[in-house]
C-alpha cells in the first residue's frame, strides 16, 4: 500500500464570472508543493475544480491514497452524494455545468483512491487559508490564462 498524500485546494473568482484563480498544496511526509494559476474570465466553481485537477495532474504515480481537503461544497457533495455519477450517466443532461472539467477530473480521480473532506473556508485552517491566498493572488495577477472551457462555451460568449 502506498503512503498517503494530503491535498488542500481552493478556488476564487473576482465576480462570478470574472478573473479567477486556484491554489493547491500537496503534502507527502515532510515534502510540500504549492500550485496556483490565474484565469482572465471564469467562475468560482470552475476554479475550485481546476485546483483539484492541477493537484492530481502534478502526481507522478497512480494508485495513490489521497485525502483532498476543500471548502467547496460543490465538489464534496458531487462526490460524496453521488451527483457526479448521475451527471456522467446522463451525459450532464439538463444543463449541468462544467462538463469539460468534471470529465477531466473523473479520469484523474479513478486512477487513485481519493477521499474528499469539506473544511470551512476562511476559518482557522492554515492550509485552507494558504490556498485562499494562492487562489486570490493568482486571480489578481497580470498574466492571466484563458479558461477555454468557459470562454469558448457558446453559452458564455458575449459581444
The beta-strand count equals 5
In the CATH hierarchy, what is the class? Alpha Beta
Please state the average pLDDT score.
92
Alpha plus pi helix count? 6
The secondary structure category is alpha/beta
Biggest β-sheet strands, sense, barrel: 5 strands, mixed
Enter the CATH topology name: Nucleotidyltransferase, domain 5
Low-pLDDT segments:
none
Walk me through the structure.
- There is one protein chain.
- With 159 residues, the chain is an alpha/beta fold.
- The protein has a single domain, classed as 2-Layer Sandwich (Nucleotidyltransferase, domain 5), CATH 3.30.420.10.
- 36% of the residues lie in helices and 28% in strands.
- It contains six helices and five strands, in the order E-E-E-H-E-H-H-H-E-H-H.
- The protein has helices at 44-57, 73-80, 83-89, 99-109, 126-139, 148-151, and strands at residues 4-13, 18-28, 31-42, 65-70, 113-118.
- It has a five-stranded mixed β-sheet with strand order 3-2-1-4-5.
- A hairpin with a 4-residue loop joins strand 1 and strand 2 (18-28).
- Helix 1 runs parallel beside helix 4.
- The chain is globular and about 45 Å long.
- The protein starts with a strand and ends in an 8-residue tail after the last helix.
- The relative contact order is 0.25.
- The mean pLDDT is 92.
